[in-house]
């Protein structure tokens, strides 16, 4: 059975999905243990799942086979995701051949890929043992390594080139740190190696820790003996697989329903929490627990945010791409919020300050032009309507998942393909090949790919509802 540790704002929903599939949840938080009636199991994890830095999804890291299994399980179950797995294992160790050296940075041949080594004093033709410290998640990213490397256990990691004792951020007790330091010294004195105590070390006994240190020392000696005989490039040691799953607004809505089966959850729970509104969400869900209806609470927070957006002078716009880029567009001013029978539109006025050409329109961009940006809540479009004075220059319909909003931010996940509409009535589909490529590379799932194609078809068939000018909807 695979042991999985889950942390972060998606923990309840993910735990439910994993428990249903038979995975063992280890080191659960007190809240998770109570919600699922779990007997606390503090065994080391095979896979750890935690929030990504921006809160927009989760990172998976752990033993390669188990991490791949859990990654594929989650991405096949949760629809409409951006997803990627590292092609190279984090902390894996290679014997490489230096090909180029410049300013303390080397480029080396690791076999199936090139690696950047820093710092590096070697010269071309030399061989070196390196450990991967940045594993690329997206096509085109570099593998970055250093002369220091680590050998991983479940409880500790041995550090070559870093002769010191370090601790997981979860190990805070001074007495425990002192005991672990003494224990490490009893095995590592004189070896020149350092040690890192992983979070699971706080649950382990001295005998278990010493056994793992001894095992890793044996692996280290075998690795160094192999270095003397091997010719580069060769992989010496496997590290940990790294995966990233980004949850779009559609994914988060699915996870809201999963979580609601465990504990009262308003619609928009995960979107709002990912945008820093956890306290507001918690307050509303307490009200649901005490008799307020879920639908009423969900509608209340939606109306509250629309009211706050209407008061904002400036609003941030975050554009998230399947290729890992997170772009922040030039902020705009909220002009108005338009409510219709089928959707709500937020109109944002953005002043153009740069020069160039408008994408897909083949029209010169000039300072002083205005972009009336239409945020279509619940719909798969963000629309840019460009004007010079009273002259409509054309519109650019960006295809994306339905936008997420907070009081001062709009965030959407771009689906790469777009539609342009010109004043003479021409309608063009743009960058379809980018969408196809992202799907072929596995960066978006099949359901999201089909969703994007359907959105394009609708926009091409009748773009008029998505276009806007300051005085009327263009027919």
TrEMBL record:
Supply one GO BP term. rRNA processing
Q: What does this protein do?
A: Probable RNase involved in rRNA stability through maturation and/or degradation of precursor rRNAs. Binds to RNA in loop regions with AU-rich sequences.
InterPro entries with a match to the protein in the record? DUF402, FomD-like_sf, Ntdp-like, RNA-bd_FAU-1
Q: Which HAMAP family match?
A: RNA_binding_AU_1 (MF_01910)
Q: Which Pfam families match?
A: DUF402 (PF04167)
Q: Which UniProt keywords apply?
A: Endonuclease, Hydrolase, Nuclease, RNA-binding, rRNA processing
For this UniProt entry, the molecular function terms from Gene Ontology, in alphabetical order, are: mRNA 3'-UTR AU-rich region binding; RNA endonuclease activity producing 5'-phosphomonoesters, hydrolytic mechanism
The protein here is known as Probable ribonuclease FAU-1
EC numbers listed for it are: 3.1.26.-
Which organism is the protein's source? Desulfurococcus mucosus (strain ATCC 35584 / DSM 2162 / JCM 9187 / O7/1)
Q: Where is the DUF402 domain?
A: 332-461
Q: Which family does it belong to?
A: Belongs to the FAU-1 family.
């Amino acid at each position: 059975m695979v042991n999985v540790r889950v942390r972060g704002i998606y923990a309840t929903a993910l735990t439910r999905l994993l428990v249903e599939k038979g995975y063992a949840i280890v080191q659960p938080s007190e809240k998770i243990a109570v919600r699922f009636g779990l007997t606390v199991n503090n065994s080391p994890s095979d896979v750890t799942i935690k929030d990504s830095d921006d809160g927009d999804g989760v990172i998976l890291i752990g033993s390669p086979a188990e991490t791949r299994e859990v990654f594929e399980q989650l991405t096949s179950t949760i629809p409409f995701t951006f997803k990627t797995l590292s092609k190279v294992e984090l902390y894996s160790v290679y014997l490489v051949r230096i090909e180029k050296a410049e300013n303390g940075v080397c480029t080396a041949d690791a076999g199936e890929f090139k690696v950047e080594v820093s710092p590096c004093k070697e010269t071309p033709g030399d061989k070196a043992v390196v450990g991967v410290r940045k594993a690329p998640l997206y096509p085109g990213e570099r593998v970055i390594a250093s002369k220091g490397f680590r050998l991983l256990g479940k409880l500790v990691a041995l550090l070559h080139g870093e002769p010191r004792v370090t601790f997981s951020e979860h190990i805070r007790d001074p007495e425990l740190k002192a005991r672990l330091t003494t224990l490490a010294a009893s095995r590592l004195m004189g070896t020149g190696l350092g040690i890192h105590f992983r979070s699971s070390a706080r649950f382990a006994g001295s005998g278990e820790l010493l056994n793992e240190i001894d095992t890793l020392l044996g692996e280290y000696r075998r690795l160094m003996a192999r270095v003397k005989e091997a010719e580069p490039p060769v992989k010496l040691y496997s590290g940990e697989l790294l995966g990233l799953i980004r949850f779009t607004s559609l994914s988060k809505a699915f996870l809201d329903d999963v979580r609601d089966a465990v504990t009262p959850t308003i619609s928009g729970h995960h979107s709002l929490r990912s945008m820093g509104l956890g306290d507001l969400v918690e307050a509303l869900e307490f009200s649901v627990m005490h008799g307020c209806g879920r639908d009423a609470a969900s509608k209340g927070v939606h109306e509250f945010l629309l009211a706050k957006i209407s008061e904002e002078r400036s609003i941030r716009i975050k554009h998230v791409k399947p290729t890992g880029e997170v772009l922040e567009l030039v902020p705009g001013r909220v002009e108005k919020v338009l409510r219709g029978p089928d959707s709500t539109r937020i109109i944002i006025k953005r002043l153009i300050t740069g020069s160039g050409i408008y994408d897909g329109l083949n029209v010169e961009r000039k300072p002083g032009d205005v972009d009336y940006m239409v945020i279509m809540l619940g719909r798969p479009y963000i629309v840019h309507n460009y004007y010079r004075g009273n002259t409509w220059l054309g519109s650019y319909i960006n295809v994306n998942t339905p936008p997420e909003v907070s009081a001062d931010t709009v965030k959407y996940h771009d689906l790469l393909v777009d539609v342009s509409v010109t004043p003479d009535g021409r309608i063009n589909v743009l960058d379809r090949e980018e969408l196809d490529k992202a799907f072929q590379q596995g960066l978006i799932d099949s359901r999201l790919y089909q969703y994007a194609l359907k959105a394009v078809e609708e926009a091409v068939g009748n773009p008029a509802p998505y276009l806007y000018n300051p005085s009327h909807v263009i027919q």
